[in-house]
């Protein structure tokens, strides 16, 4: 028996801003319903943004614990940083504060979900 990962589900109070953010990073296509946005990206599991009206963003680090986070890899950290910020993400640590040993930069999506971008 084996498992395969078919989707990652992310809660958000604002479906449009959260799905648009991930779409700007990954591309692909979005199928929208009243309660879910389905982001399909070639070669990756589907990212499902689920409407959660009472969603409270994690306050990581130093506050309410995160529930799950994405780790992304890039071959151009400076361009990735600009793309994340232009798409509506925000840094959770200063740009120069790279977390060792993998050299990760830490961000949050519009709904406050933390994620890391590291060198490939």
Characterise this structure:
- By secondary structure, the protein is α/β, with parallel strands linked by helices.
- The chain has one domain: 2,3-Dihydroxybiphenyl 1,2-Dioxygenase, domain 1 (Roll).
- The protein contains two helices and eight strands; from the N terminus they run βαββββαβββ.
- The strands form two sheets. It has a four-stranded mixed sheet with strand order 1-4-3-2, covered by helices on one side.
- A hairpin with a 5-residue loop joins β7 and β8.
By CATH reckoning, the class would read Alpha Beta
Shape: globular
Annotated CATH homologous superfamily: 2,3-Dihydroxybiphenyl 1,2-Dioxygenase, domain 1
Strand order of the largest sheet: 1-4-3-2
* Number of separate domains: 1
Query: For the terminal residues, how far apart are their CA atoms?
Result: 31 Å
Low-pLDDT stretches are: none
Cα gyration radius (Å): 14 Å
CATH fold group: 2,3-Dihydroxybiphenyl 1,2-Dioxygenase, domain 1
Largest sheet: 4 strands, mixed
What's the β-strand tally? Answer: 8
The structural class is alpha/beta
Mean pLDDT figure: 86
Would you identify the CATH architecture? Roll
Secondary-structure topology with pairs:
Elements lengths: L6 E6 L2 H12 L2 E4 L3 E5 L5 E6 L18 E5 L2 H10 L3 E2 L13 E4 L5 E6 L1
Parallel strand pairs: 1-4, 5-8
Antiparallel strand pairs: 2-3, 3-4, 6-7, 7-8
